[in-house]
Design a protein that fits this description.
The radius of gyration is 12 Å and the shape is globular. The longest helix has 18 residues. A hairpin with a 7-residue loop joins strand 3 and strand 4. The protein is built from 3 helices and 4 strands. It has a single domain, classed as Ribosomal Protein S8, Chain: A, domain 1 (2-Layer Sandwich), CATH 3.30.1370. A 4-stranded mixed sheet has the order 1-2-4-3, with helices on one face. By secondary structure, it is an alpha+beta fold.
């Protein structure tokens, strides 16, 4: 199973691009049946991470993945796990 990675450092202040990048990585994960997506919002103030979590909690997005884990050792990472049959 493959893993995908999305680093949001370069677009942290451009809302529409953030949403587009998140949607694209989720669609790519479904297309290739990835086992995991690592999203890196960075540490900062935590606002970008909150935005990522809100995106992942949307009903249509939530239906795509199995679970989300926040990295306990690195506040600036979120892991999205998929389960395929």
């Amino acid at each position: 199973m493959s893993k995908l990675k999305l680093d949001l450092h370069d677009i942290y202040n451009r809302g529409a691009e953030i949403d587009r990048a998140l949607r694209e990585v989720m669609e790519e994960a479904v297309r290739i049946k990835a086992s995991e997506v690592e999203i890196i919002p960075g540490k900062g103030s935590g606002q970008l991470k909150k935005r990522v979590i809100r995106f992942l909690e949307q009903k249509d997005v939530r239906a795509l993945y199995h679970r989300v884990d926040k990295d306990k050792d690195n506040f600036g990472r979120v892991f999205v796990y998929f389960r395929w049959k």
